[in-house]
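Exercise 7. Given the encoded structure of a 181-residue chain, write a plausible sequence.
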């Protein structure tokens, strides 16, 4: 996996600014949130090499509520699952917004890993096409980088059912900027 948060690679520093230091946003420094979010990160399948980066603020309340669980995480490819149960609309099928939440989650995490220390990814455009409905089971989202630039990233996110049938396709563009800008 290639990311900008794994300490110890030659010539690289951790997001906190020095090799082997913890990565966390300035507002989380010294808050003790790292321990609070450890179980959340483990339950969501976040690889341990990314715990320093996310340890100060977790994965986000909506990601937890939706039941999203990560299987792979890198700027080039991020994969996660989400249950249909609990994320349906009145007709009993997966809510279209749930597709978009999964897509934005995957694309934003991938862009954030690409951004690296002292930088953040901000979603500026998302679009989705829904191809087929699903009423039960698990959805898998696979996020693939289309463009990883210095100031913009674009990812395509494909949601499939357990049989591999495409449910929706989304595209997300993130602006990369320095934190505090």
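Solution.
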């Amino acid at each position: 996996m290639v990311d900008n948060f794994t300490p110890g690679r030659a010539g690289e520093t951790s997001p906190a600014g020095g090799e082997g230091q913890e990565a966390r946003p300035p507002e989380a420094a010294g808050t003790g949130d790292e321990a609070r979010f450890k179980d959340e990160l483990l339950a969501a399948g976040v690889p341990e090499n990314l715990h320093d980066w996310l340890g100060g603020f977790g994965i986000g309340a909506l990601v937890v509520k939706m039941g999203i669980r990560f299987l792979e995480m890198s700027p080039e490819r991020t994969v996660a699952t989400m249950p249909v149960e609990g994320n349906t609309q009145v007709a009993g099928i997966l809510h279209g917004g749930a597709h978009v939440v999964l897509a934005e989650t995957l694309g934003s995490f991938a862009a954030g890993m690409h951004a690296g220390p002292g930088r953040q990814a901000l979603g500026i455009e998302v679009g989705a096409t829904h191809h087929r409905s699903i009423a039960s089971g698990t959805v898998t989202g696979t996020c693939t980088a289309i463009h990883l630039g210095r100031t913009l990233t674009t990812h395509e996110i494909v949601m499939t059912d357990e049989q591999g049938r495409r449910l929706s396709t989304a595209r997300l563009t993130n602006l990369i900027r320095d934190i505090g800008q």
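Remark. The chain has four helices and six strands. Students should compare their own answers with the one above.
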